[in-house]
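Appendix B. One record, verbatim.
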Amino acid sequence: MYAKITKKGQVTIPKPIRKKLKIEKDGAVLFLIEDNEIKLKGVPKVQPEQLAGSLKKYAKEYVSLKKIRKKIQGEIGEETAGEGLPD
């Protein structure tokens, strides 16, 4: 099927595809890039907690949330320290 892209980069997903992917009004679409191709995966209307781990097979490695927070805090601390106090 063919769909045009708007000036804002938006595409309307044709109804037969939405139906096949079970994408409803408040659902979403996951864009996956594999081997220079874009694949769409329908995401039903769910709570974010229900999606936890759904992208695991696409991740290169697991990084714990604790480790991510620690890195962010360190970067914020370094950035703040670099700003110094006003004269």
